[in-house]
Amino acid sequence: MDMSGRIEYLFQPKGLNEEGQPLKRLALCTERLSVKEEDFEAVDVPFEILGTQVTNKASGFTGMAVQFIRHINGCFHVEIQPKGTLLKKGTPIQSNEFDLRECVGDKIPTLTEKARKESITQEPSPSGVPVRESCVESARSRGEGHST
Q1: Residue 110 domain boundaries
Q2: Which one, of 20, 1, 21, 17, lies nearest residue 9 by Cα?
Q3: pLDDT digits (tens, 9 = 90+) for 54-104
């Protein structure tokens, strides 16, 4: 979903190309799909975030929230487009997609740690957040965590 409200569906084919990279995603707009009203589920989309400045907490990548990506498991990602150009090439800085729960901004509600963990369990990110969470918890349960 972009800032104009346009919805696009992305389908990731299974498999890799001859260079070992994922096959190119297929993008279809609603008008190209043969669907009925009852095929859609109601989703609360935080449109108020689009057009505002957001930052990914881990990387510090900052820019305007220009699009949402809702993965099939319910996890929301936000595409962040920074201002400016690359110094050496003079080309625009590429936008990047991040798990919305890992971003901050004036319009992004802050989750408690408990709510964040519940959200990650119920709607895991395809980017691997649950894997890191479970690895840390497993290491702690085996007594392998770092002590401070």
Answers
A1: 8-141
A2: 1
A3: 999 999 999 999 999 888 788 889 999 999 888 888 888 889 999 999 999
**Dihedral (Cα; 11, 23, 80, 62), 10-degree rounding:** 150
| Domain total of the chain | 1
Q: Beta strand pairing status for 8-11 and 26-29? A: antiparallel
| Element at 115 (helix H, strand E) | helix 113-122
**Beta-bridge partners for 64:** 53, 81
pTM listed for this prediction: 0.67
Indicate whether 51 belongs to any domain: yes
Task: Identify whether 111 is part of a domain.
Answer: yes
In contact, 97 and 91? CB cutoff 8 Å: no
Let me know if residue 3 belongs to a domain: no
- As beta bridge partners, residue 10 has 27
Averaged over 47-58, what is the pLDDT? 95
In a domain, 72, yes or no: yes
Task: Give the Å distances, CA to CA, from 33 to 2, 8, 55.
Answer: 18, 10, 34
Write down the residue that tokens 């930052």 correspond to: 55
What are the tens digits of pLDDT across the range 111-122? 999 999 999 888
